[in-house]
Design a protein that fits this description.
This protein is mainly α. It has helices at residues 37-60, 70-92, 97-114, 117-129, 133-147, 158-169, 193-209, 211-222, 227-248, 257-262, and strands spanning 173-178, 181-187. Among the domains are: 37-132; 152-175 and 190-251, no CATH class. It has ten helices and two strands, in the order H-H-H-H-H-H-E-E-H-H-H-H. Helix 2 packs antiparallel against helix 3, helix 4 packs antiparallel against helix 5 (133-147) and helix 7 crosses helix 9 (227-248).
């Protein structure tokens, strides 16, 4: 079921809810809702079980410093898979009170407590501080790729996918403007700060050891760009390379300078 704008209507809102989209209905300000004990109880029960299950798993499978956080990776990827499965099954069925409470119990409460974004941020920060920057970037990339659709081509053209990932890392350019005044474009710095820090460290390593990255960096510096601006260009270049590998499903092959110039 969809509203007037073609977007799906939230199945967890009552038809009389002032925030429920409907043809001809004007959205009001801040709606006042009564607390539904059944909804809160379902979410609380699911959250308790999900948090308890994650706690027990991480006790049995602890994360060691300087190593790949395998337990957190399994927790988040399995949670993303089960969430997609349950939502697909529940949306395909006729909406009933039982399915509504089951969705709140499992998806909002259980899987919301089972998965953990805070652990990803803390573990990535710990790896970067410990000098394992490449491992931190690989951990973040592996988590995103495993939780993304199997085929990135369902997201649209390759350039669009690359822009989405740049926005996630917050390394996309944003124009400063106010009214008729327009300033220079700067890094938006939205998204996950720790992921952006890890990507920055990887870009610095790429400038030191990758001829293509070094050439891109030197080219921007020759244009008069500041050091950090040139590094941000390398960060975006790395993300585009990552998207190209995942999008085309082909391994990255570094071309020799002579061969690259002839293609």
């Amino acid at each position: 079921m969809a509203g007037a704008d073609g977007l799906p209507i939230d199945p967890d809102l009552e038809p009389s809810d002032p925030s429920e989209p409907a043809p001809g209905r004007v959205r009001s300000g801040v709606p006042i809702r009564r607390s539904h004990r059944g909804v809160l109880s379902a979410i609380a029960a699911g959250g308790f079980l999900g948090a308890l299950a994650r706690y027990e798993l991480q006790l049995a499978w602890p994360v060691h410093g300087g190593r790949f956080p395998a337990s957190t990776f399994v927790i988040n990827t399995s949670g993303a898979f089960v969430l997609g499965l349950l939502l697909t099954v529940s949306i395909a069925r006729v909406e009933t009170p039982l399915w509504r409470y089951l969705r709140l119990f499992a998806c909002v409460g259980g899987l919301g407590a089972w998965t953990t974004m805070s652990s990803i941020a803390v573990e990535s920060d710990t790896l970067v501080r410990g000098g394992a920057t490449a491992l931190a970037v690989g951990y973040l990339a592996a988590t995103m790729v495993a939780c993304l659709p199997e085929d990135l081509r369902t997201w649209g053209p390759k350039q669009k996918v690359a822009r989405k990932l740049q926005a996630f890392f917050g390394c996309d350019p944003k124009l400063r403007e106010s009214g008729k005044w327009k300033g220079c474009a700067r890094m938006s710095k939205r998204g996950l700060e720790l992921a952006r820090t890890a990507l920055f460290q990887a870009a610095v390593c790429g400038i030191m050891h990758d001829p293509d990255m070094k050439a891109a960096f030197d080219r921007k510096r020759a244009e008069g760009k500041y050091y950090l601006v040139a590094v941000s260009h390398v960060m975006r270049l790395q993300l585009r390379r990552l998207v190209a590998v995942l999008y085309d499903r082909r391994p990255f092959v570094h071309l020799a300078p002579a061969l690259a110039g002839s293609t």
